[in-house]
Amino acid sequence: MMIRALSLLTGFLNFLHSKAATSATAINIGPSTIQPGTATSVTLAGSANGALYDWSTAGAADCAGITPAHALTATNQVVSVTRSAGTYQLCYRASGETDSVVQTNGVLTVATIATAITISPSSISASTATTLVFIGSRSGDLYSWSAANAADCAGVTPTSAITATNEAVLVIQVTTGTYRLCYRASGTSDSVAQTSGVLTVVTATSATSILISPTSIVAGTATSVTFTGSANGDLYSWSAAGAGNCASVTPATALTATNQAVSVTQPAGTYQLCYRASGGRSDSVAQTNGVLMVTTSPTAITISPSSISASFATSTTFTGSANGDLYDWSAANAVDCAGVTPATPLTAANQAVSVTQAIAGTYQLCYRSSGGSGSVVQTNGVLTVVAATPANAISITPSSISAAAATNVVFAGSANGDLYSWSAEGAADCTGVTPATALTSANQVVSVTVASPGTYRLCVRKSGGSDAVAQAGGILMVTTSPTAITISPSSISMNTASTLTFTGSVNNDLYAWSAAGASDCTGVIPGIKLTVTNQAVSITQVAVGTYQLCYRSVGASDSVVQTNGVLTVVAASSASAITISPTSIVAGTATPVTFTGSANGDMYSWSAAGVADCTSVTPANTLTSSNQMVSTTHAIPGVYRLCFHAAGGSDSVSQTGGVLSVTTSATAISISPSSLTVGTATDVTFTGSANGDLYGWSAANAADCTGVTPATTITAANQVVSVTQSSTGTYNLCYGNSAVGDSVVQTNGALTVIAATSPGLISISPTSLITATATSVTLTGSVAGAFYSWTAAGAADCTGVTPATSLSSTNEVVSVTLNQAGTHRLCYRVPGGSDSVAQTGGILAVTTSSTVISISPSSITVNTATSVTLAGSSNNAFFSWSVAGATDCTGVTPATQLTGLNQVVSVTQATTGMYRLCFRSPGGSDSVAQMNGVLTVISATTANSITAVSPTHISTATATSVTLSGGTTGGSYGWTAVDSADCTSVMPATALTSTNQVISVNLGDAGTYRLCYRFPGGSDSVLQTGIVLTATGTSASTITLAPASVTVNVGTVVTLAGSAIGDKYAWSSVGAADCSGVTPATVVTTPNDVALMTQAVIGTYRLCYRSSGETDSVPQTSVLNVVAASVPYPSSVSGDPITWFGQRRVEFELPFGKLTTLMRMPDLEVFAAPFQGLQEEQWMGRVVVKSTATGETLLQVDAKQDLRHFDRSTLQHRGRHEFETMTPLFPLSTYYPFENQFLIPETWTWGTYGKPGCAFKQFEPCREAVTIVGKFAKMMIVSSSAKEWYGSVEEAYQHVHLDFDVFEMTNETQLIEGILPQMWGLQPMTAETLKLVKNVSYPYEAQTCSQCSKSTGRTVAVQRFAA
User: Which residues contact 1056 (CB under 8 A, 6 or more apart)?
Assistant: First the structure.
């Protein structure tokens, strides 16, 4: 079996087929020249989505060693390219190819571009340092300028370094002319004249170009200045004030005409005209005749105020001033600034300065703008200094006023234009006060209102002054207002603590009371402090009389009688002042009560009921006449006391003759109901009752409540009490209050007690009805006002039933609907009664409805237990079935009790026929045949109802049409597993619509199934004799292909993972969507079988599979992709020997004592022979290269097998011919090229070679190589000691053997033969080769060795051999 499996690997090892290579003219690039180091968009015209590209190394002639790796995603794609200087080949690979083709029209030159740099500006003035921007420059680039008027950059080497992108450089050219920018991009060595880098140097602007007129103007004034000599296109600017030249000034304002006049506005100072003539100049030349003097404006500054007081420091604002300006004042009354040099500097715009002048008079402001000269009188800067205000200028009358009272005060000595203000209270002078109120006449009378008491000073400023002088005769005393406080009440009782409100008081005011009868506050010092506004205080006075409120506002020191603060204290009220009449009234009734002894102004209130005195009662009702009659109403019965105080008093005295008894009202209570039945306990509501009231009932038919003392206590408002009276008649409700002890007949409390209702009053018709059916029933004997209700079914009497439906006429007809079957009783109550009496003639029989129940199903099979739903059934109902064929339920008593709604019951009938459901509702005693409860019992289904199925075999999970022979419309069927003994667990659910019906069967699991059938209307499930359906199936995921991709025209072993013995398979046509029309025919003979695949057409093939015993053809999810051949991987053979091809690793043996063909190509044939190494290893010891055409040996390399060490010191004596570890022989060559030619390619892999090169350590063998270059492959024979032995000198030399590397191969692999192409999968593996194979694996991915091309190992190159 192992031999067979290995033989089938031959196809699996072949991956390549011939395919047309990529065209060398596929791509045109544009642009073909770019700037080095700059990301540039390059269009690959002709490129296509899926293609790959890369660039060769700089200067390469072709794409050798370049594998295109950058994927293109669009046609004619634009790619970003950044390269250093040099010429690059475009290496291109079309989609699906494996080559790397240099493109004829894809040569990219990377060098400095003549349009790389644009300079700005492009024209400057001679001998003028000018900043030029090099647009497009990059750090690291170099530049120089050509000689003046040079045609190109010949002989110019760029030397000045660029340090930033778009750098700005300072340029000075002495000689006029045209200069070319010679530029070299970073990384290049050229010098390229820049098309946009031509610099024109023109003659500098003359210093005498312009003559200005006038040469002097006033600061801040727009003045027309003529520039004689100016021309259109010239530029100018002004220097800073005082600057002696145009350094750092760039002329920016363009002139548009010859000898142009321009408008100039400048601050004071001397300015240079900085000028640049047109014509591409870049200078800025100070004009000899362009000096402009700007003098200070006489209206530059406005001062405010313009008038101040002598010797008084006054803040004066200089509006229009600027930082750096200078000023001073002229002498008093001077008319100009002669002899005054401004010397005081200003430091801010519109600065405010402090001005003090000792002498009255007029002063000129002498001003010089910053940078200016001279001393200019300011028109708006004249300062008038007036004499200081005297301290006795004004005296006031009166000098004392009341707080908060507007008072006219005469300002004696005042004049029109004077200003005044008042100081703060208690201030010693006018510091910080600015007089603000203007006086308009001499000796003016001013209305003064000051809110707070205290001492205030008059601060005055005479007209035109700026001071504020406290006037000696202007001290104003403000005293407390006599109307500051209003007290309420203004009269209280002696010896009675009374609360008075001080309206108008504020926190920290003080007060005191004068002695009784005092007319003012003499000798009284307020000492009681108030703490809140409008404070309420408690006052108690022990003597009758009038008291003055002595008051002092906060901050004052006076004691002022308050006009509205007079307090009258009257004698205490007498307890016998008032006698009332009557002394008893009815609760809730307004009754006139006379207050004998009362007087106008007296006040009264009533205590609460039952309260013993007037504590906490404040009389609030005012009497207006003597012996006044007052309407009095008290809602609650009880004893009330009259609380009184005489007019002007503040006490509250309980009057001994003022005790008022309030008795219960005759209408206090209403009862409901007011009529009840004798001997019947009835709930009666006492509307109006209150907690603590008392009640009792009079005797039957008593006229009033004489002799009845209410004794039963009411405990809640509107209480409901249970009343039972043993005799008929009318009873009075006797009601009273415990405090009063009354017993009052309640007008609305009369209770009528009538005789009990008779049980024989009513007869009904009809006496029977159907459940849930509204029926008219006549209540013969009923009267209007009576009440009735029905008992529950089966009740023996009316206990617990309260008649609730009222009747409105005699012998009334009522509508009755009762849902419960059974006997119901009529409960009746005569008008006015409270009982509930069952009427002997009111018994109503309620029978079950014939439509209560419907059954489902309504047809079952005989002798088959079937679940039947009784829709409409309820708990505690009963049912039974009639005998077969019965027309009703006569003689049938429902006996089976139901326990739930819509109950499902099991029904089994032994005889076919029609059965009726006999039903009784809960509580009923009837037996009613249900119209919708007819059950049909049919014969049992036969076992041969279905005679055959066709086909008898189907595939699982596949909908298949199957014909059921036999059967009838309405019959049902289902499937059961073949091992089921019967159809007990299968209920046929799919209905047939015809005889011999074709049905669709889709069974998910493989197996054998039997058919269960049921007659129409039946409830059984009968196994059909002889009907067996076999479902077999193949899963779409049964098989996994490995590999899933093979090369076209290459026989490849494909493993059918998951296949089993006896399965069958076939391949679809290329590109087929499924397996339609494909019959699997190839039989699987081993588990996980292998197939040798050779397909001539590229595309996707589906595996059509059929599991053993199946009849299907199922496309497998795993598909086989046949792909185009690709260029082979770089491949190698280590000396063990082991060969690598991409990720594929094959261990193999070579026969001893003979040469075995490793590779045979049309031009060269490579042989190898092994030798027995240490530890029973087999190593390659000889590799021979022969000409395929002649058979002549071209090269033989032998590994040195007797090495123990090697003395390199002998190399110089033994010649450069000798190798350390191997002996190469060239039988046909007289030329022995033993130069160190470093041809070891970058495609070496670490997996193949342990340590490339020769480190020339003392005791470490070199790795030496011979390179063979043929038409179809580039190969190399390499000495190796295996890296694991390099730690030991002796072992390293003992393990020397040969490795063989193929680092480049064409895709014409069909022309290459030998054991290696077979092991690599490029050719089918023969049985002979398979015998050499020891193991095949895919241990790791290939890795490139970037150091290999830098090896210092000794190599020798063999000339290219002809094919």
Answer: 1039, 1041, 1065, 1084, 1088, 1089, 1090, 1091, 1103
Q: What is d(CA 1182, CA 1166) in angstroms, rounded to the nearest whole number?
A: 11
- pLDDT tens, residue by residue, 958-973: 788 999 999 999 999 9
Q: How far apart are CA 564 and CA 548, in angstroms?
A: 9
Distance CA 743, CA 710 (A): 6
Helices (H) and strands (E) in the chain, counts: 6, 119
Choose the weakest-confidence range: 330-344, 905-919, 996-1010: 996-1010
Backbone angles phi, psi at 848, to 5 degrees: -70, 145
> Rounded CA gap, 1270 and 89, in Å?
24
This prediction has a pTM of 0.38
Tell how far CA 479 is from the center of its chain. Answer: 71
Which helix (DSSP H) or strand (DSSP E) does residue 1213 occupy?
helix 1211-1214
Residue 436: how many other CB atoms lie within 10 Å: 11
Q: Which residues, at least 6 apart from 666, have a Cβ–Cβ distance to it below 8 Å?
A: 586, 744, 745, 746, 747
Give the whole-angstrom CA distance, residue 40 versus residue 79: 8
The 3-state secondary structure of 749-803 reads: CCEEEECCCCCCCCEEECCEEECCCCEEEEEECCCCCCEEEECCCCCCCCCCCCC
Please give the residue that has the higher pLDDT: either 537 or 1246.
537
Q: Which of 389-398, 1032-1041, 1226-1235 has the lowest mean pLDDT?
A: 1226-1235
* CA gap 229, 667 in Å, rounded: 126
In whole angstroms, what is the distance from residue 858 CA to residue 46 CA?
Answer: 81
Number of residues assigned to the chain: 1363
What proportion of the chain, given as a percentage, has pLDDT over 90?
A: 56
Task: State the average pLDDT over residues 2-19.
Answer: 29
Considering only CA atoms, which of 599, 603, 597, 600 is closest in space to residue 652? Answer: 603
φ/ψ of residue 2, rounded to 5: -60, -45
In this predicted model, what pLDDT tens digit does every residue of 239-290 receive, in sequence order?
A: 998 888 998 899 999 999 999 999 999 888 889 999 999 988 988 999 889 8
The CA distance from 211 to 322, in Å, is 31
- Confidence band for 1286, pLDDT divided at 50, 70 and 90: low
Q: What is the enclosing helix (H) or strand (E) of 805?
A: strand 805-806
Cβ atoms 889, 925 nearer than 8 A? no
Give the model's pLDDT for residue 1205: 54
Measured distance CA(654)–CA(617) in Å, rounded: 10
With residue 77 as reference, give the H or E element that holds it.
none
- pLDDT value at 183 more than 60: yes
Closest by alpha carbon to 145, among 170, 113, 109?
A: 170
- Helix (H/G/I), strand (E/B), else coil: 1006: coil
Q: How far apart are the first and last CA of the chain?
A: 42
Contact 1150, 1167 (CB under 8 A): no
Pairing of strands 837-847, 904-907: unpaired
Burial label for 416, CB within 10 Å (0-12, 13-18, 19+), is exposed
| pLDDT bracket for residue 1128 (50, 70, 90) | low
